[in-house]
Amino acid sequence: MDVNMAQLKSHTLENTQTIEHPSSGGKALSDIFDNLTLEIIEENPDDMIIDIKGIEAPLANALRRIMISEVPTMAIEDVDLYQNTSVIPDEVLAHRLGLIPIYAEPEKFKYKTQEDSHNGENSILFKLHVKCIRLQDKSIQNENVYSRDLIWSPLPGQEKMHIAPVHSDILIAKLGPGQEIEAELWCEKGIGATHTKWSPVCTASYRLMPSITLSQILKGENAKALKRKCQAKVFDIEDGKAIVANMRDCTSCRECLRDENFGVVLGKVKDHFIFSIESTGILKPRRILRDAILILKKKARDWIDIINVYKHTPKS
Amino acid sequence: MGDTERSLLSKSDEPSSLGIMNMKKVSYICGWCGKENEFTSRDELNCIGCGYRIFYKKRLAGGAQYEAR
Question: Which of A49, A55, A75, A104 could form a disulfide with A59 if both were Cys (CB 3.0 to 4.6 A apart)?
Answer without folding.
Answer: A55
